[in-house]
Amino acid sequence: MQARGDNLYSAVKAFAESAKLRNAHQRESLGVSNGSDDGQAVFFDYLAWFMIFYSRRIAMALHSIPVIIFLVMPFFSRFLYSGLWCCFATFYDFVKGMILHTTGIMLAIIFPVLFSILRLLVSSYGMNWFANPFLAFMMFIPISLVGLLIPRTVFHGFPLSQNVSVLKVPKEALSDEARFWGAFGFYASVTLAYLLAGLSGGFLTFFTSASMLLAWISFCLSIKFSGRQLARSSVFYVIPLIPCLTYSVYFGGFLVQFLIEKMGMMGSLPPPYGNYVPDIVVAAIVGVVTGWCMGPLMPICGKWLARSSILQFLLHFSVIALALSSQFFPYSRDAPKRVVFQHTFLTADANQIVDSSYDFSVVDSNSLLFLFKYAPELAKELNIGPEFSFETAKMSNQRTFLTLFPVNFLFSRSMQFPARSDEILKQYRQFPHLYTNKPQTMSSDGSRRVYLELSLGSLKEVWVAVLNITGPLSSWSFADTKLPVPETAEGGPPSYICRLTGSSHEKWNFWLEGRNVEDIRVDVAVLDQNLVEEAKKLKSVFPEWTDVTAYSSFLSTYVF
């Protein structure tokens, strides 16, 4: 929180002190209110050293250059010496090189995905990399490199369309040229796709394309002055790529780390495939980053890396990483498992409890069974035996967690356990309740208006109250009388949901208008951050590798 506050303060201060800060009159006089295109400007930092910024108009020109070079290069390099037919043959080779490079990138993504699925088939749980991010790199980078090198291994001799005898150029030189310009064409095409889609992320592939062009010039000069010495010319190819590769590793590493952190909050997806999604997503992103970082090296350095001994080493390393990963626990104090613990009270009026329960849910792919298995004290407190399973457990639906809307849509396979309600009766005199405070009115078009008042009772620490309204609703007094888009949860009827926040002692007065005389159902859910002593005791037995969001929820239903 301190770091976020520091960042926010610095950003606001920089905006406030900016020399470009103008009022409305200045913007109008300078013509920037309508004519500026900086809203879609391209900006990024390089290794946190300095910022690069250019407008959308400049990006339109810059990001179009790589694909123009790719299209023009076959004719520029062949037309004056070999004629038009040779130009088309050269372009065809470039296209084949681009197809092979694209295939390598795709296999660099597919191989880690298949590897992650295989790992889950032999492992009892997923997300081993969540508390140990280095595992994601150990498991998925080597197998991704194998996929990236497969086209180079299969097509060791490039299928040239050009006539070597006519051009009087070594076949190896033509193969290197086709592979390079094919890879260059891939990154140029991606840059153009970003540009046409109106996105600003094309700077990544533009930087790669520009660096590859400098690397190719260095490579050609090395061959011209020193001959085709493979090691020497490869070094001259790699040196101009170092700034690009450094940035790719820097940016890609942060991207994977950021994604891994978010996987612990992406939601508990339903079976049978929900358990696979986080590992597949992380594996695919690691594959993308690996292809992006290593792809520019493949045209020239691929002949070194595509040796059978290197491929075998990478494959063996991946298998060893697969075996070792199962020895790591997926959670820790610094990377905890998020658990939602709701003490639910079903109320009938201001002072009557109909039912009480403990409801649990998680927000990642390792289900509650994983939690109870590795938290024996919690399982003992809930009287969970060894035969416990989803088939024998009492399940909670998303409506039970209505107070957390819309976060409750992330929950699946939530569980419910019985709880006592006598303690809450001693703690609070009144519970949240809804009632009519005026007689309803009828309009000439047949619609009726119901006047209601919501009391939050004597709750101590109310965070939010949520109304879930089902029925022929045509208008209400909230949000300038505009109805939101209706929500549907777990196959239920469409309903309108409103979140209310305020002090616990305040009462909410509002009206609902229905299109006809049919009943309007209102589900009220109020979140109180205060827990009874029994719930506090249960929360205390959770292991230290969990982060528990615990609260009390008061649910009631009314029909008007």
From TrEMBL:
It comes from the Eukaryota. Pfam families: ERMP1_C. The chain crosses the membrane at residues 67-92, 98-122, 129-150, 192-223, 235-260, 280-298, 310-329. Keywords: Membrane, Transmembrane, Transmembrane helix. The keyword Transmembrane helix applies. Residues 335-558 form the Endoplasmic reticulum metallopeptidase 1-like C-terminal domain. Belongs to the peptidase M28 family. This is Endoplasmic reticulum metallopeptidase 1. The lineage of its organism: Eukaryota, Viridiplantae, Streptophyta, Embryophyta, Tracheophyta.
